[in-house]
Amino acid sequence: MAIFTDPIREYAHFGPGDAEWLHLLVGDWQMVADLAFADLALWFPLDDGGYVALAHVRPSTSHTVFHTDFVGERIRADLLPLVDKAWMSQKMERSGDTNWTTEMAMRVEAVPMVRNGRTLAVVTTHMDLSSSRMPSRLELTYRQCAHDLLRMGTLGLWPDFATPTGSRRGAPRVGDGLIRLDVEGVIQYASPNGVSAFRRLGDVETLEGRSLAEIVTSLLTDRRMVDETLPLVVTGRMPWRTEIESRGVSLSLRAIPLRDEKDRFGALVLCRDVSELRRREMELVSKDATIREIHHRVKNNLQTVAALLRMQSRRMVSDEAKQGLEQAMRRVGTIALVHETLSQGLSQSVDFDELIARQFRLSAEVASPAHVVRTERAGSFGELPSDFATPLALVINELVTNAVEHGLAERTGTVWLLANRRKGSDGDEILNVTVADDGIGLPYENHKEGLGLQIVRTLVTSELDGTIEWAPREGGGTAVSIELGLHDNRS
After folding, report:
1. Sorted alphabetically, which keywords does the UniProt record give (predicted)?
2. Which helix (H) or strand (E) element contains residue 332?
3. How far is CA 266 from the centre of its chain?
4. CA-wise closest residue to 398 among 446, 348, 456, 441
5. Where residue 439 falls among pLDDT bands split at 50, 70, 90?
6. Using one digit for the tens of pLDDT, what is the confidence trace for 303-332?
7. DSSP annotation of 72
C-alpha cells in the first residue's frame, strides 16, 4: 500500500512532524479498516478547492466497496461537500443520506485528522450497507473501536509517535484476536480468536470481567524472563508491543490506549499466537549457527592439512617436490580463508573485497620471498555467493603466483588486480577481473602449461562458467582477463 506523497511535500503549511504523522497513520490504518469493516481513503486539499486521494486501504474483515485504485485522483463531486464540512468543523461528519451506487448502498463518514489545532487531511470511511442481517456483538464492538480510534485522530491523539514501527514478524492483527479493556484494565470484550489464544496459553476460564494483567501474571511460569514492557501493555497504558510465553506457546500482544479530551478511558489489545513463527525463527538461528560451525571446522581442518604439507615440505630433498608441496599448501590456505570468512557471518555470501585484499597481498609475498613485489587493487567485487567465492579466490591466487614467478621472473615489479561489475544486455550482472603485471610479457616460459594454469582454466570454464584470455599489457607485461556471469541462481 503506497501513499501518494507529492502534495504533502509541496504543502507549505505543515509544521514539524506533520507529514510524518500522516505517514504513521497510513502505516497503521489497516487496523481501523478491519475494525470498521470499511474502506478508508485519505484526502488532501488542492489549491483549487478540491481534494486528491493520497492513499486507500481495503478491509480484510469484509469485502471492499472500491474495486479500482483511485489514489492520485480528484475527489468526486458528491463526496466534496462532506469532506469540506469535516475539514472546516474539525469533527467527524456522516452523510445524511445513504449513498447508493449501481451495486450497493454505502454509509460514508468524513474524519478530519487534526494535529496542533490544524486539519492536515480527511479520512473517509465507506461501509457497505447492502447486507440486511443484524450485526453481531463482535461487529458492533469492532465498529465502536474503529470510531474511538478515528475520533482520537480528530483530537491529534492517534496515531501515537510512541508506537513501535519495527518490522519484527508476528505483529498482531485485528483478525488474530482483539480484547477491549476498560480504564482499570478489566476485559470488556474478547473476540473468539482472542479467547482461543489465551486458552492455548493455559487459561480455560472466560476472559470478560477479569483483569488482563492478573490473567497474564497467573500464566507466567518463569517471571525472570518477563519483558519489562509487559505491565504497561497488559494494562493498556502505553502503545507498545510485548510477548508472553507459557507451556510452549508464544503470544504477541499490542496495546492501543483509548483517550479522549480528558484522559484515557480504555484500551485495545491485539493478540496473536506466534508460536510457529518463533519456532521457525529458532530453527533458522540454529541452522545458521550450525552452518557457521561447519565452516569453522572446515577452516580448522584445512589449516591442519596446510600445516602437515608445510612439515612434509621441510623434509623434501628435491627442490621440485618442496615447491609442489608449498603450492599445494597455498591452495589449501586460500580455500581455508573463504571458510573462515563464512564462519563469521550469518549470510552465505562473502564480502569478496575484504577477503581478496588479504589473499592478494599474501599470494604475492609468498611467491616472491627474495625480491620486492608491489600490489595494487582497483574496482570492487562486491558480495559474492560462497560457491562462487571459493573457485574465484583460487583462480586469483594462481594467477598472482604465476605473474610473480614467471611474469616478473624474480624481478622487482608490480601486480595489479582490477575488478568491474556491470549489467549485461540480458540484465544479469557481469564481473570482469584482470590480473596484470609489468614483467617480461608474453610469451614467457610455460605461461599456458603446468598444474597452476590447468587449475585456473578448469575453475573458470567449469566452476565459474566464464572465459579467460591472456594478452600483452599496454606499457609492458601481461594481462589476464576473466569474464564471469553472476547469474540469478548464484545470487
Report:
1. ATP-binding, Kinase, Nucleotide-binding, Phosphoprotein, Transferase
2. helix 319-342
3. 34
4. 456
5. confident
6. 787 777 777 777 777 877 877 777 777 777
7. T
| CA dist., res. 148 & res. 124, Å (int) | 15
Cα–Cα distance measured from residue 414 to residue 469, given in angstroms and rounded to the nearest whole number: 20
CATH class of 351-491: alpha beta
Model confidence at 284, pLDDT cuts 50, 70, 90, reads low
Q: What is the CATH number of domain 6-154?
A: 3.30.450.280
H/E stretch holding 365 reads helix 352-367
- Which of these CATH numbers, 2.60.40.10, 3.30.450.20, 3.30.160.40, 3.40.50.2300, describes 174-273? 3.30.450.20
Can you give the residue ranges of every domain in the chain?
Answer: 6-154, 174-273, 275-346, 351-491
**Main-chain phi, psi angles of 170, to 5 degrees:** 100, 15
Output the DSSP codes for 161-214: TTS-----S----GGG-EEEEETTSBEEEE-HHHHHHHHHHT--S--TTSBHHH
Backbone angles phi and psi of 442, in degrees to 5: -85, 150
pLDDT for the residue numbered 204: 73
How far apart (Å, rounded) are the C-alpha atoms in residues 107 and 99?
6
Amino acid 190 reads A
Closest alpha carbon to 350 in 313, 312, 389, 406: 389
Report pLDDT for 429.
85
What burial letters (b/e) apply to 32-69, b meaning 16+ CB within 10 Å? bbbbbbbbbbbbbbeeeeebbbbbbbbbebbebbeeee
Q: Per DSSP, what are the bridge partners of residue 123?
A: 42, 111
